[in-house]
Amino acid sequence: MDAQPTPESILRAWQRIEFFQPYTLDEKKQSIRLTLSELRRAGDRLLPWLNAELREQCDIPDRAAYVVHLGLFDKSIANQVARQVFGTESGLAAEENEQRLDNEGITCFAKVVVDKHGAPALQDLSVSSLPWALGHLAQQRFNQLHSQTFKNHCETLADKLTTFALSLRAAVENGPRILGAADVLALLHDELVPWADFSPAWKYALQIDWFESGSSASEDDTADEDEAGGSNNIALPILNSFFFDDLEIVSASLHPSQKSKSLRAYLSNESVPKIDLYSQSAMDAIITLSHPAKTPPGRWPADPRHNMSLMQQFAINAATTELADGGILSVNGPPGTGKTTLLRDLVAHNVVERARVLSGFTQVADTFDKNGLLVPALCGFEMVIASSNNAAVENISKELPQQSSIAEAYREINYLAASANQIAAAGLPRRDKRTAKEPNGKGRTYHLFRPLETDKQCWGVISAALGSKKNRQRFAQRFLIDEHFLRDTPAEANRPQNENFLSLWRWWKCHQHTSFAEAKRAFLHQLKQTDALQQQLVTLADLRASEPQDLTPLKQQLNALQQQLTQQVRARDLAETQNHALEVQIRHLLQQQKVLDATSPGWFSRLLNRKKVQAYQQEKAAVQQNLLQLTQQQVLYAQQLEAAQRKTGEIESQIQHVQQHLQQLIDRQAAQAREVQALQQRFPDVAMPDPACAIDDVTLQRNALWQNKEINDQRSRLFVAAMALHQAWLNEALYQPAFRSVLFGMSDFLASPQKSPQPVREWQTLFMMVPVLSTTFASVGRMFSGVGAEELGWLLIDEAGQASPQQAVGAIWRAKRVLVVGDPLQIEPVFTTSPALVKYLCEDTLARHADHWNPGLLSVQQVADRTNHWGCELEVMNQVQSIGIPLWVHRRCREPMFSLANRMAYNGRMIHGLDTEAIRARPLQGLIHNRWIHVTGKTTDKQYHDSLGDGLLQLLDTLLSQHVALASLYIITPFKAVKFALIDRLAQRDLHTWRQWQPMLKQKEIKEWQEKNIGTVHTFQGKENDTVILVLGCDEENKGGAHWAASKPNLLNVALTRAKNNIFVIGNRTVWGSYPGLQD
């Protein structure tokens, strides 16, 4: 039997797959794309750095530098090569490939930056490993698809590029060597193609984009977008894979002496027995982990009237308790079950715990080392939110700072609110910005941002969306540099609410600050209040959980002692009776002796009547003998009586002791009962554990144990005080020269973290000011370059069901504690590489264990769920699915969407947070009922037929005629072909037709709606809207697509649960009606 694969071999298999990741090259508005024939025919005239007229025509600034992508070809060629080697798919596999494989668009061989003169930075040229890997695939050189071979080939290419650079001509004597059209062709054909041993059908020879060299990052920049990354291990940076370098670094670090508890668990082959959280036997474990002593004292300041659901709070308690020393935990959240709410409370927990440490310092200066960096006690609370879905991480990072994320009762909270607004605001175009002189005579550009809408206004810099270099530079610019107002002017001092914009430094100057000492006192007061309240709950929980002592043994002991006492009293009484009888006999003998002595014969009688004397003497001797015997017996009886009395006293003493102990216990139990009653009256509306309650009880699942409005409010106020303490700390920290020096370098650090000698220390400083930073997995390697194993406190993975397992490796390795949140029954990861190729590479490296680690079959969520000892099993379409900690209470959709999705994907286990009447189906605008619109027709473009478009247009006219807002509608389809066809069909409508029902509609509004609200199911995960129009496809003779879409619940589950209020389905009921879920 072959051994289990090692973590290193798993990472090696995943890294080999990364060679084939396509780099998507987007065409920007100003891009110039040139074909080979155009470049050969027109030559240098098509290169803007060599043609001033072209620069003027394209409005290219004189100081612009250029990004040149070389050797453009269709991404679909990669799948074509794989089919040549492994054969063509059929059936469901073919349909799945068509819909899930990222096959659209253009990719390229390499990228190089060219300066304004035309000099290429060939030493920094980055290459895509895809054409190199395709060359090996086409020739079936699988044994060379390894990182070392690739490194060697890149070193060879780097040497050739050095020689090539020397062959370039200079435009002027002693000037820089420039890149001409012939050089581009030579670079492509003589260097890159031989290096890859691959020459595809070229789409374009090159694409040229430009940016203003030397300018600061701004929203207008087209500079480095953080496309994959450079490596210290490879001679040339890799253009296409964001994860290749991290997989290499992590694999090299996985030796026993290195910390990596979370990643080792993630890559573990061991099967972890699960405690089934949907079984009655799990109730005791749920009650134990829901104990108020395990509930974090901090809470996000949401509406205190709304408790967590039972499993939300269980998941939070499990995370904060079980991950204290590191590890990984997974939570499974079906749509609308409060995954974001859960993450918010974890954020609140970390902020409060760091504030607890911070409150232990006497003065702010003590929180820094000599270099102005945080002391270790304040580290370990860093929080990174990561996902493969850029929208997911940006949404949560942008929502957390908004006032709409907190309840009205806590709107007084203000943590750098003006800076948060500035980060959130949209920039004004350059023509609307102003320039003026400040009072000090210095010129400054100001009036930089658009007024912020009320629902987008912020309470604090609790989080920031970073990731790509562009995002990091934008954040640094907004947070540390930009100034919307001229300094020290009335406009700055009297900022309107919708233009409350200040950089960190201007906030420091303009804000009315609370001292650190005062904020510390306020926090400690709230902490004391919270602890006192929670201690009452702990006492109540412990008293209710404690079994009252069984008094039966004591009562039995008392009864036995009383029986012994009765017997002993009888023995004592008998001894007394016997002793009394002896005393009577002895008195009688003594009397008899006196009588004998009185009748004693005289001396004369003794001489004359010797018989009488002898008889007297015999009688007296007998009396004396009897008297002696009775006296001896009396002594014995007296001893027995004394012993009986002593024993009786001992038993009586024991009885008294037992009676006292028994009474004490009775009094104690009565006191505890009174205390329980008093505490229950103190918290009458708190849900308390009942082990006998059914695990699927609606009331049990809807409300977390040990919560009510008062408790929630106090925990939220503790978080508010914790944020105030952080703000007071920051205010006084800015007076520290060493800390100020660190902040002065923060912009440069964020632009190039890899250049820092100790990046984790600088990140810790930023996390102290901004507790939560988000990034896509694609940017983790570059953003956290140089950050080692377990050097970040927390990693919160969102939408983990959409991410391929290798994407999270670098992030998990860098984090001490990892919480994975997602749902494997929603959108699956997009295929970026041919499944047949992925299967082969996994089998080649992992043998019979290939499917267990095949990233084409798994998501981050599924791998993490395997390591979780909490969870349950679902039967989904006759297959058992094992998941992690389940969130069951749904709060988004009304009927019929809720019940349809619940039956289809979750075994009916979801529970709605509202009662049946509150979620019953209601017609749209009170008139238009949810319905299936049956259309028939022959497909003309894969799954599309015109009757789908006809049905959609008729439905849209009906909805618009009833004043339904266009923005409230999503149009969703499982199929790419249907999406494109519908977009084309809608684009054919003129503005007059749109306006026949809603005259105020604008062309821009329609265009934005078409771009954002129409798409395949994959593009809508994590979003919601009032109404969804689900457009199906296929016909009775071409059912393959329908069979694929309905073969798993994922697509239809997501489509249904995007709709909060209404659903319309357009499709052929004959084709679709027989599939699970759709027959309803």
Q: How many beta-strand runs? A: 25
If you average the pLDDT, what whole number results?
92
Question: Strand count, sense and closure of the main sheet?
Answer: 7 strands, parallel
- Using only C-alpha atoms, the radius of gyration works out to 42 Å
Question: Any overview of this molecule?
Answer:
It comes from Pantoea wallisii. This is Helicase. This protein has 1080 residues and is α/β, with parallel strands linked by helices. Among the domains are: 242 residues, no CATH class; 132 residues, Helix Hairpins; 160 residues, 3-Layer(aba) Sandwich (Rossmann fold), CATH 3.40.50.300. Helices cover 48% and strands 11% of the residues. The chain contains 41 helices and 25 strands. A seven-stranded parallel sheet has the order 12-13-9-14-15-8-18, sandwiched between helices. A hairpin with a 2-residue loop joins strand 16 and strand 17. The two termini are 48 Å apart. About 1% of the residues have low confidence.
